[in-house]
Design goal:
α2 packs across α15 and α7 packs across α9. With 537 residues, this protein is α+β, with helices and mostly antiparallel strands. 32% of the residues lie in helices and 19% in strands. The strands form six sheets. It has a seven-stranded mixed beta sheet with strand order 10-9-18-19-20-17-21, with helices on both faces. The protein has 16 helices and 23 strands. It is globular, with a radius of gyration of 23 Å. A hairpin with a 5-residue loop joins β13 and β14. The longest helix is centred in the C-terminal third of the chain and has 19 residues.
Length: 537
């Protein structure tokens, strides 16, 4: 498959090099530094003015990089709190106590270099993050996998996983098609999309002939991290994910989590820092439209009937928000760009159910558990294992705070039925909860995550747009760096800021990524030879 040429402006990433210096790099000695174009450290003379639309990870990364370099920044956020998909809000429980509800558990992997660099602004030692000791996976048939003892450096990570996993037996290994798995060893961006974006993740995995238990226990769990059924997900995204988290990075698959709810741990400290740089944070302020200004720059019309002129604008919105603002801004961009935005799709709905129970779950339950075969349940978190607020409630009441996730819920599924099934599966998985009384329950249904469908890569927006004063950032954005999920949001936020800063002769944020290609030259060569032979046939 050959992707059509894209006539949108090319991304400018600066010079990508290997480097072992600097605190932003993790333990991986092959992590790569992306150096922005040179320039002054700060704005000289009258400060440019930038409007950042969206107060999630991408918007806050862009605002931070701009404000630190002397740019006047206004952040527009439609919700009353910052954080986007990691926002939190206060609730009062049925027992009269106060708690913070959110959209649920998020894993802060060690290879999220740029997200962690953003958080280091307010906590250089990242003390707000605590490490979970394992990433366990459990199948309804009783099979259990763990990443705690798996080596972190490829290829030993893959070999160690196969050797330690009960999902792989010798007969299973003999039935596998290793040639079909070779693309996992030769990941390059954007070439991986040219080769694999036209196939589904499900078809790609089926061709490799992974053992059925391994397919469900590990690989389907990974693909559903994109909130999509693997039959709809691009194989290129799946392969990129394996490169980032497993086969291309020696950071390993263990991760950290915030030790308090997201607002307290992350966004309130970052908001104070932004305000100290003069940033105006306009929460509860939706944007109605953006238009090019006659004298240059752009005007932003907010829902409070105010209109402001900005020298640059960053659209850091989720998929539906971006579609809505662009549709309401008929003079923005050009026809081809606008059509691409209009065609963007969101992943199916997902559910986060949080239960406050009147008795504890068993002491040996992990803080986080991925599941397979317990449909619709995809994972379980026992929040008091790491979150301070949940821990205080649990100690004060003798209970537990348990969170259940269901991804890619079918369109015909009734919400009440799915919620009841989640609780039933928890009781099946953790039998000690069968007699627990639910003190309170909160159910958050959302459908705003980007879908990365088969063949959809070229239709996704890039950071740059036809208007040099307008940038796009977020986890839906196409980039030539090996990043995904929260890290893609942070990285594209910084890239959007860097592109604007370059216009004003200011040096932007230095970025880090996992290696941009497979770690073994011999294995990369083998994969490319197999690909050429396959094409020749």
């Amino acid at each position: 498959m050959t992707l059509p040429r894209d006539d949108e402006p090319a991304e400018t990433f600066g010079h990508r090099t290997r480097d072992t210096s600097g605190p932003a790099r993790g333990r991986d000695r092959r992590a790569q530094r992306v150096v922005p174009p040179g320039g002054r450290p700060r704005v000289m003379g009258p400060a440019p003015d930038v409007g950042v639309i969206g107060g999630g990870i991408a918007g806050l990364a862009a605002a931070t990089a701009l404000a630190e370099r002397g740019v006047r920044v206004t952040v527009y956020e439609r919700e009353p709190t910052l954080g986007g998909r990691l926002a939190g809000w206060p609730v009062q429980l049925a027992d009269g106590s106060s708690a913070t509800m959110s959209r649920g558990f998020h894993a802060f992997f060690r290879q999220y270099y740029n997200l962690r660099a953003l958080l280091r602004r307010v906590d250089p030692g990242l003390r707000m993050l605590t490490a979970l000791p394992d990433y366990p996976l459990r199948h309804s048939g009783g099979m259990y996998d763990s990443f705690a003892r798996v080596p972190r450096t490829p290829p030993w990570s893959a070999l160690g996983f196969v050797a330690l996993s009960p999902a792989f037996g010798w007969r299973d290994l003999l039935r596998m098609n290793p040639a079909a798995a070779l693309p996992l060893l030769d990941v390059r961006v954007p070439e991986v999309y040219e080769r694999l974006d036209g196939r589904s993740a499900w078809d790609f995995l089926a061709e490799i002939r992974f053992p059925e238990a391994a397919l469900h226990l590990a690989f389907e769990v990974f693909s559903r991290s994109f909130f999509a059924d693997p039959r709809e997900l691009s194989a290129a995204e799946l392969v990129m994910m394996f490169h980032i988290y497993f086969l291309g990075s020696s950071e390993g698959l263990l991760f950290d989590v915030p030790d308090e709810p997201f607002p307290r741990a992350l966004w309130e400290p970052l908001a104070r820092r932004l305000e100290s740089h003069g940033t105006e944070l306009r929460t509860a302020t939706p944007v109605e439209g953006v238009a090019p200004a006659s004298g240059g720059g752009l005007t932003v019309a907010a829902g409070d009937r105010t209109t402001r002129h900005h020298d640059g604008v960053v659209l850091a919105l989720d998929t539906e928000g971006l579609r809505r603002v662009v549709a309401a801004s008929p003079r923005l961009g050009d026809e081809r760009w606008r059509a691409r935005i209009a065609r963007l799709r969101t992943a199916p709905p997902f559910l986060v159910s949080r239960l406050w129970l009147d008795r504890p779950v068993a002491a040996d339950r992990p803080g986080f558990l991925g599941t397979s075969g317990f449909a619709p349940l995809d994972n379980v978190s026992v929040l008091e294992r790491w979150e301070g607020e949940a821990g205080r409630w649990a100690r004060g009441t003798g209970g537990s705070v348990v969170e259940l996730h269901a991804y890619a819920v079918g369109p015909a599924a009734g919400r009440d039925t799915v919620q009841e099934r989640l609780v039933a599966q928890l009781r099946r998985l953790y039998p000690e909860t069968r007699d627990a009384r639910i003190v309170d329950a909160r159910h958050e249904w959302r459908a705003d995550c980007p879908l990365f469908p088969v063949g959809g890569f070229t239709g996704r927006p890039t950071v740059r747009t036809p208007d040099p004063a307008l940038m796009v950032a977020g986890d839906l954005v196409r980039t030539e760096l090996p990043v995904a999920l929260m890290e893609r949001a942070a990285t594209t936020g910084f890239l959007a800021a860097n592109a604007l800063l370059e216009r004003w002769g200011v040096r932007g944020q230095t970025l880090w990524t996992v290696p941009g290609e497979g770690r073994s030259a011999a294995l990369r060569g083998l994969a490319r030879l197999a690909a050429r032979r396959s094409t020749a046939r």
